[in-house]
Each structure stands twice: as structure tokens, then as C-alpha cells.
Design brief:
- Helix content is about 30%, strand content about 25%.
- The protein has 3 helices and 10 strands, in the order βββαβββαββββα.
- Strands 3-6-5 form a 3-stranded antiparallel sheet, with helices on one face. Strands 4-9-8 form a 3-stranded mixed sheet.
- The N and C termini lie far apart (about 45 Å).
Length: about 160
């Protein structure tokens, strides 16, 4: 994904970002689990959720991922229209593999493009039980609400406040 540079408006530069994640899997068994998970994720299709482009390599038990950086907002679980799409795609889905950590940091939204990206590949797991998914959803929703309440309470000012004591 290419982004326009804001360094100098007269320059027509396309800039792309990626990050590298290094995981020491410790055992060959864990390597196999991670490789299976990542290979499944590469071919996975969701109705609403997108997966950033990624690749990986192995050196013994060291797995190195290069992942496309998605420039957007971590608001997927905080805005109802996106949260509803995440729920439909990940909790209600018929597939046995899904993302199962619904922390608001795990979903990046590109609002202008109306796109949602799941960015925590470790939370992509075998979870055929929709009841278990719903249980995790409700737990994470409660945690997300507590975090957001704390953040908004601790903000030094709000746009509608004239002065704060």
C-alpha cells in the first residue's frame, strides 16, 4: 500500500511502510503451528476484514515476519459500524479458524476507504465454537469499554470544554 508524502507537497513521492516481527518459537512443534497458522491466514477470505500483506521466513526456530504497515486508526472496536462488521465476520462466521482477540488495538480502520484490517496474527486460531467466540467477544468488549472510559476521563481537555479545573 502506498501513501502520499506530506514532506513537501510539490514532491510526488509514494511511500510504503512495513514492519518486521521476530518470533522465537523455541521448538519445532511451535514452528509447525505458526507456519500452519500463517499459511492458512495467507489464503483466508473474510467478508469485511482485510489482512495486511505479509511474508515470513524461518531460520531454525526463529520465524521472521515482514508485514505491510497499515496507516489508519485503532478504532475498529470503538466505532459501532466497524465493531458490528468485526462481530459478523469473526464471531458469527462459519469457518473454524478466526481471530479471537477483540482488543481495540488489534483492528486498524482506514476510514476514507471504509476498510478494516486485522493486525494481530497471533490471535488467528482454530476456534470452531461460536459460543466460545461470543464469550471472548463479551470479555474483550468490557475491557475495551473500561480502557476507553479511562482514556476519556484522563484527557486534559475536550473540544467542547471551555476550561477545566
Amino acid at each position: 500500500m502506498k501513501h502520499k508524502s506530506r514532506i513537501n507537497p510539490s514532491l510526488d513521492l509514494d511511500i510504503s511502510f512495513q514492519f518486521t516481527k521476530v518470533i522465537d518459537c523455541k521448538t519445532d512443534e511451535y514452528v509447525e503451528m505458526m507456519v500452519d497458522k500463517l499459511d492458512r491466514l495467507k489464503s483466508e477470505k473474510f467478508d469485511n476484514i482485510l489482512i495486511p500483506k505479509f511474508d515470513y521466513s524461518l531460520d531454525g526456530t526463529i520465524l521472521t515476519q515482514t508485514v505491510e504497515y497499515i496507516k489508519g486508526r485503532k478504532c475498529g472496536m470503538t466505532v459501532r459500524k466497524y465493531r458490528d462488521r468485526i462481530y459478523k465476520d469473526l464471531v458469527e462466521r462459519d469457518g473454524e479458524w478466526t481471530f479471537c482477540d477483540f482488543n481495540f488495538d488489534n483492528f486498524i480502520v482506514m476510514e476514507k476507504e471504509n476498510k478494516i484490517y486485522a493486525i494481530d496474527f497471533q490471535s488467528y486460531n482454530y476456534m470452531p465454537s461460536k459460543d466460545k467466540r461470543l464469550e471472548l467477544w463479551e470479555e474483550d468488549l468490557e475491557t475495551n469499554n473500561l480502557v476507553l472510559e479511562y482514556i476519556t476521563r484522563e484527557l486534559p481537555f475536550r473540544r467542547n470544554d471551555k476550561h477545566r479545573n
